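User: Hey, my collaborator sent me this sequence without any context and asked if I could get a structure. I don't really work with proteins. Can you help?
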Amino acid sequence: MMLKCREVSFLLSEAQDRPLSMSEALQLRLHLFMCKKCSNFSHQLKVIRLACQKKANDEDLH
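Assistant: No problem. I've predicted the 3D structure and written it out in structure-token form, which is a compact way to encode the shape of the chain:
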């Protein structure tokens, strides 16, 4: 059964804190391949995470 968008957003959040199981990762990839909205949301999360990491690194240098 294919994941619903709400489940995908939960898994994307979970993936920030823990490794996903192989089954979770596969289902997630399949959904992201087929759903443009969730794919965009995934990309936005990555951009936000990278911006936060950069900000934290910049603050460590000062």
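In plain terms: The radius of gyration is 14 Å. You can pass these tokens on to your collaborator as they are.
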